[in-house]
């Protein structure tokens, strides 16, 4: 990166690896030096929680606030009803207003850990674009806003072009999404003085549209900044695993499993992830990331502890590390393992028995009976740390009077117990 910024926020974005591109480095740098500058990132409410794939954007907002600027979390209560087509092969399923509101309430819990909301000059705001999108008059919107958009230019954006090149359908509903997102930036600038939009590099076209629209309508100078689309060193999409997304809400992914995800980071990713997902000094991130052999495991534990502390608090991080040590080093049960509690009515076989196969599925260690049988056949299943080869083995309420530990491979564990 040739540009050497004067502002703390832009310097951090560059040296920690957050920055992929910027519409105007010098202009944004000078605006940031004034302090208290509002900047936003939009999040569509497609689930009750964000997952690890969104964490890079959350950290950008956190750093923005720590550097004396004003972060805005824009929830897409309106745009979620349309669906972002960016780099998708198909149209997103449409959600009801009640589902969207429920999702926004869940996502709010995530941000309460990372940002300080309030009336201070740098106090974070959480807004909902339904506030200005739901009451739009379509004819007026076409006349006042639609006339500023070139269809030729919109078709050239990579997110649209990639769909068309693959001859995959792109509905008019989705095509409107980029106009609505551009209008968000215009309204945020008009209502809250917002001068910066950030997002992943797949949002570059949408961000540029918003900047162009705001300049045309309000003649205001605003800026865009994107982060790289992150994959792990082995090419996998960040935040997805074999057993599903790594959610940030504790009720959707237990803190122990969240901690374990970071503990299992590939050696080659440790230094980079420490810079992006923790607040450790860059020099310490580089030092830890350069460790080799068995020493890199200490760096992974540090990574897991730091990230889990931000997401779930220091007590959850300490409990997860203690459980990992108990499970892996001492072969014990561990107090913080994910636990499935069965009631007497949960025994499907004759009303008083449940099979090992059914318990593995109930515990979320496997997705189906077929998946469970494969795990057992390949020797990856253990019950109370002993190898298990019979998925049809039955357990009664008496067997579950004490917790039964289930293991799928070396790294995934759960407890099954009986309700009091």
UniProtKB/TrEMBL annotation:
EC number: 6.1.1.1
Binding site for ATP: 240
Annotated GO MF terms: ATP binding; protein homodimerization activity; RNA binding; tyrosine-tRNA ligase activity
Keyword check for RNA-binding: yes
Motif mapping: 'KMSKS' region: 237-241
Subcellular compartments: Cytoplasm
Motif placement: 'HIGH' region: 45-54
InterPro entries xref list: aa-tRNA-synth_Ic, Rossmann-like_a/b/a_fold, S4_RNA-bd_sf, Tyr-tRNA-ligase, Tyr-tRNA-ligase_bac-type, Tyr-tRNA-ligase_bac_1
Catalytically driven reaction(s): tRNA(Tyr) + L-tyrosine + ATP = L-tyrosyl-tRNA(Tyr) + AMP + diphosphate + H(+)
Known function: Catalyzes the attachment of tyrosine to tRNA(Tyr) in a two-step reaction: tyrosine is first activated by ATP to form Tyr-AMP and then transferred to the acceptor end of tRNA(Tyr).
Family: Belongs to the class-I aminoacyl-tRNA synthetase family. TyrS type 1 subfamily.
PANTHER family xrefs: TYROSINE--TRNA LIGASE, MITOCHONDRIAL, TYROSYL-TRNA SYNTHETASE
Subunit relationships: Homodimer.
NCBIfam families xrefs: tyrS
Name of the protein: Tyrosine--tRNA ligase
Organism: Brevirhabdus pacifica
Gene name linked to the record: tyrS
